[in-house]
Amino acid sequence: MSVETARFATTAVHAARNHAPAASRATPVYLTAGFEFEDFDHAADHFGSGDGFGYSRTGNPTVRAVERQLAALEGGADALLLASGQAAVATALLSVAGAGDHIVASEHIYEGSRGLLVDNLARLGIETTFVDDIADPEAWRSALRPSTRALFAESIANARNDVLDVSAIAAVADAAAIPLIVDNTLATPYLLRPLEHGASIVVHSASKFLAGHGSVLGGVVVDDGRFDAAKAGHNAAHLVLPGRGGTPSVAARHGGLARIAYARESVAPRFGATPSPLNAFLVGQGAETLGLRVERQSRNALAVARWLAEHDAVESVDHVGLPSHPDHDTAVRYLHGGYGSVFTVTLRGGLPAAKSFVEGVRVFTHMTHIGDVRSLVLHPGSTSHVLRSAEERERLGIRTGTVRLSIGIEDIDDLIEDLAQVLQPVREVVR
Protein backbone atom coordinates (compact mmCIF):
# COMPACT_ATOMS: atom_id res chain seq x y z
CA MET A 1 0.00 0.00 0.00
CA SER A 2 1.32 3.45 -0.91
CA VAL A 3 0.93 6.56 1.25
CA GLU A 4 -1.31 7.99 -1.46
CA THR A 5 -3.90 5.24 -0.91
CA ALA A 6 -3.46 4.81 2.84
CA ARG A 7 -6.04 5.83 5.42
CA PHE A 8 -5.70 8.93 7.59
CA ALA A 9 -3.71 7.63 10.57
CA THR A 10 -1.28 5.73 8.32
CA THR A 11 -0.76 8.77 6.10
CA ALA A 12 -0.11 10.97 9.14
CA VAL A 13 2.70 8.72 10.33
CA HIS A 14 4.34 7.95 6.98
CA ALA A 15 3.82 10.89 4.60
CA ALA A 16 6.96 12.79 5.67
CA ARG A 17 9.17 9.71 5.39
CA ASN A 18 12.71 10.39 4.17
CA HIS A 19 13.74 8.08 1.32
CA ALA A 20 17.28 9.34 0.86
CA PRO A 21 20.17 6.82 1.00
CA ALA A 22 20.83 5.64 4.56
CA ALA A 23 17.76 7.62 5.56
CA SER A 24 16.89 8.41 9.15
CA ARG A 25 13.44 7.01 9.92
CA ALA A 26 12.57 10.23 11.77
CA THR A 27 12.60 13.41 9.72
CA PRO A 28 16.14 14.89 9.91
CA VAL A 29 16.46 18.50 11.06
CA TYR A 30 18.51 20.56 8.61
CA LEU A 31 19.21 23.48 10.93
CA THR A 32 21.27 25.52 8.50
CA ALA A 33 20.96 28.91 6.80
CA GLY A 34 22.18 27.55 3.47
CA PHE A 35 23.48 24.59 1.49
CA GLU A 36 26.82 24.13 -0.22
CA PHE A 37 26.83 24.02 -4.03
CA GLU A 38 28.86 21.34 -5.76
CA ASP A 39 30.24 23.71 -8.39
CA PHE A 40 29.54 26.85 -10.43
CA ASP A 41 26.98 25.18 -12.69
CA HIS A 42 25.13 23.65 -9.75
CA ALA A 43 24.55 27.12 -8.29
CA ALA A 44 23.47 28.50 -11.66
CA ASP A 45 21.05 25.63 -12.22
CA HIS A 46 19.49 26.11 -8.80
CA PHE A 47 18.86 29.82 -9.35
CA GLY A 48 17.63 29.19 -12.86
CA SER A 49 15.15 26.40 -12.10
CA GLY A 50 14.54 26.70 -8.37
CA ASP A 51 15.15 22.97 -7.97
CA GLY A 52 17.04 21.66 -4.98
CA PHE A 53 18.10 23.66 -1.94
CA GLY A 54 20.30 26.73 -1.77
CA TYR A 55 19.09 28.87 1.13
CA SER A 56 16.65 27.98 3.90
CA ARG A 57 14.49 31.03 3.27
CA THR A 58 13.54 29.55 -0.11
CA GLY A 59 13.58 25.86 0.77
CA ASN A 60 14.79 23.35 3.33
CA PRO A 61 14.65 19.51 3.32
CA THR A 62 13.03 19.34 6.77
CA VAL A 63 10.41 21.89 5.82
CA ARG A 64 9.79 20.15 2.51
CA ALA A 65 9.19 16.79 4.19
CA VAL A 66 6.56 18.32 6.49
CA GLU A 67 4.95 20.10 3.54
CA ARG A 68 4.49 16.73 1.83
CA GLN A 69 3.00 15.33 5.02
CA LEU A 70 0.48 18.14 5.47
CA ALA A 71 -0.48 18.20 1.79
CA ALA A 72 -1.22 14.48 2.00
CA LEU A 73 -3.39 14.91 5.10
CA GLU A 74 -5.49 17.60 3.40
CA GLY A 75 -5.65 15.71 0.10
CA GLY A 76 -3.86 18.59 -1.65
CA ALA A 77 -1.39 18.65 -4.51
CA ASP A 78 1.24 20.67 -2.65
CA ALA A 79 1.74 22.67 0.52
CA LEU A 80 3.81 25.61 1.71
CA LEU A 81 4.89 25.72 5.35
CA LEU A 82 5.22 29.15 6.94
CA ALA A 83 6.26 30.76 10.20
CA SER A 84 2.75 31.15 11.64
CA GLY A 85 -0.92 30.77 10.86
CA GLN A 86 -1.17 34.50 10.28
CA ALA A 87 1.66 34.22 7.73
CA ALA A 88 -0.28 31.45 6.00
CA VAL A 89 -3.43 33.59 5.69
CA ALA A 90 -1.44 36.61 4.49
CA THR A 91 0.53 34.55 1.96
CA ALA A 92 -2.57 32.85 0.59
CA LEU A 93 -4.40 36.15 0.11
CA LEU A 94 -1.40 38.01 -1.33
CA SER A 95 -0.88 35.16 -3.78
CA VAL A 96 -4.26 35.84 -5.39
CA ALA A 97 -4.95 39.56 -4.76
CA GLY A 98 -3.15 42.87 -5.23
CA ALA A 99 -3.78 46.61 -5.28
CA GLY A 100 -7.23 47.41 -6.67
CA ASP A 101 -8.55 43.92 -6.00
CA HIS A 102 -11.38 42.80 -3.71
CA ILE A 103 -11.98 39.89 -1.32
CA VAL A 104 -15.27 38.59 0.06
CA ALA A 105 -14.86 37.16 3.56
CA SER A 106 -16.97 35.65 6.29
CA GLU A 107 -17.81 38.00 9.15
CA HIS A 108 -17.17 35.04 11.47
CA ILE A 109 -13.40 34.70 11.23
CA TYR A 110 -10.51 34.90 13.67
CA GLU A 111 -9.93 38.50 14.72
CA GLY A 112 -6.29 38.42 13.60
CA SER A 113 -7.42 37.52 10.08
CA ARG A 114 -10.10 40.20 10.15
CA GLY A 115 -7.55 42.78 11.29
CA LEU A 116 -5.25 41.75 8.44
CA LEU A 117 -8.07 42.43 5.98
CA VAL A 118 -9.46 45.69 7.38
CA ASP A 119 -6.19 47.27 8.53
CA ASN A 120 -3.21 45.92 6.60
CA LEU A 121 -4.49 44.72 3.22
CA ALA A 122 -6.72 47.79 2.98
CA ARG A 123 -3.57 49.95 3.12
CA LEU A 124 -2.24 47.95 0.18
CA GLY A 125 -5.35 48.75 -1.84
CA ILE A 126 -7.15 45.44 -1.30
CA GLU A 127 -10.77 45.94 -0.21
CA THR A 128 -12.90 43.41 1.68
CA THR A 129 -16.64 42.90 1.93
CA PHE A 130 -17.82 40.81 4.89
CA VAL A 131 -20.74 38.38 4.71
CA ASP A 132 -22.74 37.76 7.88
CA ASP A 133 -25.15 35.07 6.66
CA ILE A 134 -22.45 32.68 5.48
CA ALA A 135 -24.96 29.85 4.97
CA ASP A 136 -26.63 31.75 2.12
CA PRO A 137 -24.82 31.36 -1.23
CA GLU A 138 -26.72 34.37 -2.57
CA ALA A 139 -25.21 36.56 0.15
CA TRP A 140 -21.76 35.63 -1.14
CA ARG A 141 -22.79 35.98 -4.76
CA SER A 142 -24.26 39.45 -4.27
CA ALA A 143 -21.03 40.64 -2.65
CA LEU A 144 -18.96 39.79 -5.74
CA ARG A 145 -17.41 42.51 -7.90
CA PRO A 146 -15.50 42.30 -11.18
CA SER A 147 -12.38 42.87 -9.07
CA THR A 148 -13.10 40.08 -6.57
CA ARG A 149 -10.18 37.66 -6.44
CA ALA A 150 -11.11 35.23 -3.64
CA LEU A 151 -13.70 34.12 -1.11
CA PHE A 152 -12.37 33.52 2.40
CA ALA A 153 -13.99 31.73 5.34
CA GLU A 154 -13.36 29.29 8.18
CA SER A 155 -14.64 25.72 8.06
CA ILE A 156 -15.66 25.99 11.74
CA ALA A 157 -15.76 29.58 12.93
CA ASN A 158 -13.76 30.72 15.92
CA ALA A 159 -15.54 30.78 18.26
CA ARG A 160 -19.33 30.47 17.71
CA ASN A 161 -18.99 27.23 15.74
CA ASP A 162 -20.69 28.41 12.53
CA VAL A 163 -20.02 25.64 9.99
CA LEU A 164 -19.37 26.57 6.37
CA ASP A 165 -21.36 24.86 3.63
CA VAL A 166 -18.16 24.37 1.67
CA SER A 167 -19.68 22.87 -1.47
CA ALA A 168 -22.29 25.61 -1.83
CA ILE A 169 -19.85 28.48 -1.36
CA ALA A 170 -17.20 26.77 -3.50
CA ALA A 171 -19.76 26.69 -6.32
CA VAL A 172 -20.13 30.48 -6.04
CA ALA A 173 -16.36 30.89 -6.26
CA ASP A 174 -16.03 28.47 -9.15
CA ALA A 175 -18.71 30.24 -11.18
CA ALA A 176 -16.73 33.47 -10.74
CA ALA A 177 -13.43 31.72 -11.65
CA ILE A 178 -11.86 32.61 -8.31
CA PRO A 179 -10.65 30.42 -5.43
CA LEU A 180 -12.46 29.68 -2.19
CA ILE A 181 -9.84 29.84 0.57
CA VAL A 182 -10.83 27.97 3.74
CA ASP A 183 -9.12 28.31 7.10
CA ASN A 184 -9.44 24.73 8.35
CA THR A 185 -7.65 25.22 11.68
CA LEU A 186 -10.56 24.28 13.95
CA ALA A 187 -11.84 21.35 11.92
CA THR A 188 -8.43 19.89 10.96
CA PRO A 189 -8.20 17.47 8.02
CA TYR A 190 -9.18 14.67 10.40
CA LEU A 191 -12.75 16.01 10.61
CA LEU A 192 -13.06 17.81 7.26
CA ARG A 193 -11.03 18.14 4.05
CA PRO A 194 -12.42 21.24 2.27
CA LEU A 195 -10.53 20.53 -0.98
CA GLU A 196 -12.69 17.45 -1.43
CA HIS A 197 -15.77 19.69 -1.36
CA GLY A 198 -14.60 22.20 -3.94
CA ALA A 199 -12.38 24.62 -2.03
CA SER A 200 -9.21 25.62 -3.91
CA ILE A 201 -6.90 26.53 -1.04
CA VAL A 202 -6.76 25.54 2.62
CA VAL A 203 -4.82 27.36 5.33
CA HIS A 204 -4.02 26.37 8.90
CA SER A 205 -2.43 27.77 11.96
CA ALA A 206 -0.16 24.77 12.42
CA SER A 207 0.58 26.06 15.93
CA LYS A 208 -2.79 24.66 16.95
CA PHE A 209 -4.06 21.13 16.27
CA LEU A 210 -1.48 20.13 13.66
CA ALA A 211 1.39 20.55 16.13
CA GLY A 212 -0.85 19.95 19.13
CA HIS A 213 1.69 20.45 21.89
CA GLY A 214 1.58 24.26 22.14
CA SER A 215 5.37 24.54 21.77
CA VAL A 216 5.90 26.20 18.39
CA LEU A 217 4.36 28.54 15.84
CA GLY A 218 3.70 27.52 12.27
CA GLY A 219 1.27 27.87 9.40
CA VAL A 220 0.55 26.09 6.15
CA VAL A 221 -1.07 26.79 2.79
CA VAL A 222 -2.36 23.74 0.88
CA ASP A 223 -3.42 24.03 -2.77
CA ASP A 224 -5.64 21.68 -4.78
CA GLY A 225 -3.35 21.89 -7.84
CA ARG A 226 -6.27 22.53 -10.17
CA PHE A 227 -5.53 26.10 -11.25
CA ASP A 228 -6.94 26.63 -14.74
CA ALA A 229 -5.15 29.45 -16.56
CA ALA A 230 -7.69 29.63 -19.37
CA LYS A 231 -10.63 29.91 -16.97
CA ALA A 232 -8.93 32.28 -14.52
CA GLY A 233 -7.93 34.79 -17.21
CA HIS A 234 -7.78 38.39 -15.97
CA ASN A 235 -8.64 37.23 -12.42
CA ALA A 236 -5.08 35.93 -12.13
CA ALA A 237 -3.09 38.10 -14.54
CA HIS A 238 0.02 37.80 -12.37
CA LEU A 239 -0.06 34.04 -12.95
CA VAL A 240 -0.99 33.84 -16.63
CA LEU A 241 0.96 36.75 -18.16
CA PRO A 242 4.71 36.61 -18.91
CA GLY A 243 7.03 37.66 -16.12
CA ARG A 244 9.77 40.28 -16.02
CA GLY A 245 11.85 40.37 -19.18
CA GLY A 246 9.34 38.21 -21.02
CA THR A 247 10.06 35.08 -18.98
CA PRO A 248 7.40 32.34 -19.18
CA SER A 249 4.38 32.90 -16.96
CA VAL A 250 3.98 31.08 -13.65
CA ALA A 251 1.13 29.09 -15.19
CA ALA A 252 3.26 28.12 -18.19
CA ARG A 253 5.98 26.85 -15.87
CA HIS A 254 3.84 25.17 -13.20
CA GLY A 255 0.42 24.46 -14.73
CA GLY A 256 -2.18 23.56 -12.10
CA LEU A 257 0.30 24.32 -9.32
CA ALA A 258 0.67 27.96 -10.40
CA ARG A 259 -0.91 29.45 -7.25
CA ILE A 260 1.22 27.56 -4.76
CA ALA A 261 4.33 28.02 -6.93
CA TYR A 262 3.79 31.78 -6.95
CA ALA A 263 3.33 31.75 -3.18
CA ARG A 264 6.56 29.76 -2.79
CA GLU A 265 8.63 31.80 -5.26
CA SER A 266 7.33 35.34 -4.98
CA VAL A 267 5.36 35.89 -1.75
CA ALA A 268 6.62 33.85 1.20
CA PRO A 269 10.39 34.29 0.69
CA ARG A 270 10.13 37.98 -0.15
CA PHE A 271 7.98 38.80 2.86
CA GLY A 272 10.24 36.63 5.01
CA ALA A 273 7.62 34.24 6.38
CA THR A 274 10.10 31.34 6.53
CA PRO A 275 9.62 28.74 9.29
CA SER A 276 12.48 27.43 11.38
CA PRO A 277 13.46 23.87 10.36
CA LEU A 278 13.24 22.91 14.04
CA ASN A 279 9.69 24.27 14.25
CA ALA A 280 8.86 22.39 11.06
CA PHE A 281 10.18 19.20 12.60
CA LEU A 282 8.03 19.68 15.71
CA VAL A 283 4.94 20.43 13.62
CA GLY A 284 5.58 17.23 11.67
CA GLN A 285 6.04 15.20 14.83
CA GLY A 286 2.76 16.52 16.21
CA ALA A 287 0.88 15.89 12.98
CA GLU A 288 1.73 12.19 13.18
CA THR A 289 -0.73 11.84 16.07
CA LEU A 290 -3.31 14.36 14.81
CA GLY A 291 -6.11 11.82 14.36
CA LEU A 292 -5.65 10.30 17.79
CA ARG A 293 -5.70 13.68 19.51
CA VAL A 294 -8.59 15.21 17.59
CA GLU A 295 -10.72 12.10 18.12
CA ARG A 296 -10.13 12.30 21.89
CA GLN A 297 -10.51 16.10 22.03
CA SER A 298 -13.77 15.98 20.08
CA ARG A 299 -15.19 13.24 22.28
CA ASN A 300 -14.20 15.13 25.44
CA ALA A 301 -15.61 18.40 24.08
CA LEU A 302 -19.01 16.93 23.26
CA ALA A 303 -19.24 15.42 26.75
CA VAL A 304 -18.30 18.76 28.32
CA ALA A 305 -20.78 20.64 26.11
CA ARG A 306 -23.61 18.28 27.02
CA TRP A 307 -22.81 18.62 30.73
CA LEU A 308 -22.65 22.41 30.54
CA ALA A 309 -25.93 22.61 28.60
CA GLU A 310 -27.71 21.00 31.58
CA HIS A 311 -26.12 23.25 34.21
CA ASP A 312 -28.36 25.95 35.68
CA ALA A 313 -25.47 28.44 35.81
CA VAL A 314 -25.18 28.27 32.02
CA GLU A 315 -27.25 30.40 29.67
CA SER A 316 -26.18 28.78 26.38
CA VAL A 317 -23.57 26.50 24.79
CA ASP A 318 -22.48 27.09 21.18
CA HIS A 319 -21.14 23.64 20.32
CA VAL A 320 -22.06 22.39 16.88
CA GLY A 321 -22.35 18.82 18.13
CA LEU A 322 -25.46 19.76 20.07
CA PRO A 323 -28.78 19.49 18.16
CA SER A 324 -29.66 22.95 19.53
CA HIS A 325 -26.90 24.59 17.45
CA PRO A 326 -28.30 26.19 14.26
CA ASP A 327 -25.55 24.60 12.14
CA HIS A 328 -25.86 21.11 13.61
CA ASP A 329 -27.31 19.60 10.44
CA THR A 330 -24.53 21.14 8.33
CA ALA A 331 -21.99 19.73 10.75
CA VAL A 332 -23.50 16.27 10.44
CA ARG A 333 -23.08 16.50 6.65
CA TYR A 334 -19.48 17.72 6.68
CA LEU A 335 -17.73 16.62 9.86
CA HIS A 336 -16.68 13.00 10.29
CA GLY A 337 -15.02 11.61 13.40
CA GLY A 338 -16.26 14.31 15.78
CA TYR A 339 -17.51 17.88 15.98
CA GLY A 340 -14.34 19.69 17.04
CA SER A 341 -13.24 20.85 20.45
CA VAL A 342 -13.31 24.67 20.48
CA PHE A 343 -16.59 26.33 21.45
CA THR A 344 -18.15 29.02 23.60
CA VAL A 345 -20.33 28.88 26.69
CA THR A 346 -22.25 31.85 28.07
CA LEU A 347 -22.75 32.04 31.83
CA ARG A 348 -25.87 33.52 33.43
CA GLY A 349 -23.86 35.71 35.80
CA GLY A 350 -22.39 37.93 33.08
CA LEU A 351 -18.92 39.44 33.42
CA PRO A 352 -18.47 38.64 37.15
CA ALA A 353 -19.29 35.00 36.46
CA ALA A 354 -16.87 34.88 33.51
CA LYS A 355 -14.10 36.46 35.59
CA SER A 356 -14.71 34.00 38.43
CA PHE A 357 -14.65 31.16 35.91
CA VAL A 358 -11.31 31.96 34.24
CA GLU A 359 -9.64 32.73 37.56
CA GLY A 360 -11.08 29.70 39.34
CA VAL A 361 -10.26 26.81 37.02
CA ARG A 362 -7.49 24.45 38.09
CA VAL A 363 -7.19 21.90 35.29
CA PHE A 364 -8.02 24.35 32.50
CA THR A 365 -5.26 26.81 31.57
CA HIS A 366 -6.13 30.50 31.09
CA MET A 367 -4.30 31.54 27.92
CA THR A 368 -4.76 32.69 24.33
CA HIS A 369 -4.40 29.52 22.29
CA ILE A 370 -6.49 26.63 20.98
CA GLY A 371 -5.92 23.09 19.77
CA ASP A 372 -3.54 22.19 22.58
CA VAL A 373 -3.40 18.80 24.30
CA ARG A 374 -4.24 20.85 27.41
CA SER A 375 -7.70 22.31 27.99
CA LEU A 376 -7.72 26.10 27.71
CA VAL A 377 -10.08 28.96 28.53
CA LEU A 378 -10.28 32.61 27.41
CA HIS A 379 -12.78 35.47 27.75
CA PRO A 380 -13.18 36.73 24.15
CA GLY A 381 -15.04 39.94 25.00
CA SER A 382 -12.09 41.40 26.91
CA THR A 383 -9.29 39.84 24.84
CA SER A 384 -9.53 38.59 21.25
CA HIS A 385 -12.68 40.60 20.41
CA VAL A 386 -12.03 43.68 22.54
CA LEU A 387 -11.74 45.95 19.46
CA ARG A 388 -15.21 44.97 18.21
CA SER A 389 -18.20 47.11 19.18
CA ALA A 390 -20.77 45.80 21.66
CA GLU A 391 -23.24 45.41 18.79
CA GLU A 392 -20.73 43.42 16.73
CA ARG A 393 -19.88 41.15 19.66
CA GLU A 394 -23.58 40.52 20.26
CA ARG A 395 -24.04 39.59 16.60
CA LEU A 396 -21.13 37.18 16.86
CA GLY A 397 -22.61 35.54 19.96
CA ILE A 398 -19.99 36.99 22.32
CA ARG A 399 -21.58 38.43 25.44
CA THR A 400 -20.09 39.62 28.72
CA GLY A 401 -20.57 36.17 30.24
CA THR A 402 -19.17 34.25 27.26
CA VAL A 403 -16.00 32.21 27.65
CA ARG A 404 -14.25 30.16 24.98
CA LEU A 405 -13.12 26.64 25.75
CA SER A 406 -10.57 24.55 23.88
CA ILE A 407 -10.84 21.02 25.18
CA GLY A 408 -7.74 18.86 25.50
CA ILE A 409 -7.00 15.19 26.01
CA GLU A 410 -7.27 15.05 29.81
CA ASP A 411 -9.50 12.56 31.57
CA ILE A 412 -13.09 13.74 31.05
CA ASP A 413 -14.00 13.25 34.73
CA ASP A 414 -11.21 15.63 35.77
CA LEU A 415 -12.44 18.27 33.32
CA ILE A 416 -16.02 18.07 34.52
CA GLU A 417 -14.96 18.11 38.18
CA ASP A 418 -12.97 21.28 37.48
CA LEU A 419 -15.96 22.90 35.79
CA ALA A 420 -18.26 21.83 38.61
CA GLN A 421 -16.12 23.42 41.30
CA VAL A 422 -15.76 26.69 39.43
CA LEU A 423 -19.46 26.91 38.50
CA GLN A 424 -20.75 26.21 42.01
CA PRO A 425 -20.39 29.84 43.16
CA VAL A 426 -22.21 30.96 39.99
CA ARG A 427 -25.00 28.48 40.68
CA GLU A 428 -25.40 29.91 44.17
CA VAL A 429 -25.53 33.50 42.87
CA VAL A 430 -28.11 32.57 40.22
CA ARG A 431 -30.28 30.84 42.79
Summarize the structure in words.
The chain has 18 helices and twelve strands. With 431 residues, it is an alpha/beta fold. It folds into two domains: 240 residues, Aspartate Aminotransferase, domain 2 (3-Layer(aba) Sandwich); 141 residues, Aspartate Aminotransferase, domain 1, CATH 3.90.1150.10. The longest helix is centred in the C-terminal third of the chain and has 20 residues. It is globular and about 75 Å long. One of its GO terms (cellular component) is cytoplasm. This is homocysteine desulfhydrase.
> What CATH first level of the largest domain would be assigned?
Alpha Beta
- What value does the average pLDDT take? 93
What's the number of helices?
18
Contiguous runs where pLDDT drops below 50 for at least 5 residues? none
Taken in chain order, the helices and strands follow as HHHEHEHEHEHEHEEHHHHHHEHEHEEHEH
Give a short account of the largest sheet.
Answer: 7 strands, mixed
Head-to-tail CA distance between termini? 61 Å
Spatial ordering of strands, largest sheet: 1-7-6-5-4-2-3
Tell me the strand percentage band.
Answer: 5-15%
Radius of gyration: 22 Å
CATH H-level superfamily title of the largest domain:
Type I PLP-dependent aspartate aminotransferase-like (Major domain)
* Fraction in helix: 40-55%
Give the helix/strand class.
Answer: alpha/beta
Task: Give the total of beta strands.
Answer: 12
For this entry, what is the oligomeric state of its chains? single chain
CATH topology of the largest domain: Aspartate Aminotransferase, domain 2
Number of domains: 2
Q: Outline, from the CA principal axes? A: globular
* CATH architecture label of the largest domain: 3-Layer(aba) Sandwich
